[in-house]
């Protein structure tokens, strides 16, 4: 397979608790694309384990385009991504998480779309969720394709799969980047970009294998997460993106889901994810 590179950056962030083998798989997928980036910015969010450092050093020696930026303290994903965006040399930036696996054609398809659609500021795709190995696909998360559908979908659910996005740096910076006081940071970024007139597009196929753990659903239940849902929806309402009626509907659905027993909540999550 002949590889080419283009003028875009890849932005990643790693912290102490991550799995070195997952990081290895993720970095391998970044450097084994049909279209590779001119630079890969990897933020070290505070001190990391020797095992993680070993993996990072191996890739640094092999790939001169990998630039590792260490920070003394763990500060959280939002702050790291904001700093990383500023450090990226190119206006087009591909986000990548350090435990997911990008399909070989991901960067090429997304970059080509942005290159041929200068009016578009962000492109994403579907994801395939897997457990243990990418051969064990358990679900596919599909998101709307066209901008108008994405805008309406965003009033109820996150309209973009964050680990798949490629966006224009100037459009993200125009709204102030990720806001750490809001959770989830990416959802609020998309809403602010939509409100600022940015055009969105999702490629109608999966371009990434997303590492999934059943423990995620188990952890995201209970009264704490239920109360967080109220805060999230109220913040979206304060931004002016949804009406009071939509906010109340969203809270009713999400709050009740969070406090349901785990087996029922698991069944609901399975139902809303499209296979």
From TrEMBL:
Instruction: Give UniProt keywords alphabetically.
Output: Glycosyltransferase, Transferase
Q: Where is the Glycosyltransferase 2-like domain?
A: 9-165
Q: Which Gene3D superfamilies match?
A: Spore Coat Polysaccharide Biosynthesis Protein SpsA, Chain A (3.90.550.10)
Q: Which domain of life is it from?
A: Bacteria
Q: Name one Pfam family in it.
A: Glycos_transf_2
Establish whether keyword Glycosyltransferase is in the entry.
Answer: yes
Alphabetical list of InterPro entries matching this protein: Glyco_trans_2-like, Glycosyltransf_2, Nucleotide-diphossugar_trans
Q: Name one GO molecular function term.
A: glycosyltransferase activity
The cross-references to SUPFAM superfamilies, in alphabetical order and at most eight, read:
Nucleotide-diphospho-sugar transferases
Family that this chain belongs to: Belongs to the glycosyltransferase 2 family.
Its name, as the record gives it, is Glycosyltransferase
**Which source organism?**
Marseilla massiliensis
Q: What is the lineage of its organism?
A: Bacteria, Pseudomonadati, Bacteroidota, Bacteroidia, Bacteroidales
